[in-house]
Write a structure and sequence with these properties.
mainly alpha; 119 residues; 82% helix; 5 helices; 0% strand
């Protein structure tokens, strides 16, 4: 069966309407995923976890310093070694970004929750 242009547009609109009905709004998603703030901050387990994350960031920063020193060394003359160092550097920098996001998560959830309750 071939659709006319009007039938095709009506079908698209109907599909979009059904999709919107099935997908909850972002505010309702926040309410569904509401997390007790005392579970995010102040618990011994969470604080221990955040200390481990902070220690991992420190380790990665030291490794980045060492990798940058190695990259600037005149003794690295093999192309594959230089590329391996650059890959390590990029990986460590990316890991630090992710770990800093983890450290900021409780605050961003609390700020997002405040924004949702104000709106």
């Amino acid at each position: 069966m071939a659709f006319t242009r009007e039938e095709w547009i009506a079908s698209l609109n109907e599909n979009q309407r059904h999709r919107r009905e099935r997908e909850p709004a972002p505010a309702s998603l926040l309410r569904m995923a509401a997390v007790s703030m005392d579970k995010l901050t102040g618990s011994e387990e969470w604080d221990a976890y955040l200390k481990l994350v902070a220690a991992r960031i420190d380790d990665l920063e030291q490794s980045i310093t060492a990798t940058r020193e190695a990259l600037s060394s005149p003794t690295i003359v093999v192309y594959e070694e230089m590329i391996a160092l650059k890959i390590r550097l990029a990986g460590h920098e990316g890991a630090i970004v992710a770990l800093r996001d983890i450290l900021a998560l409780p605050r961003s959830i609390m700020e997002g929750d405040k924004g949702a309750s104000n709106g």
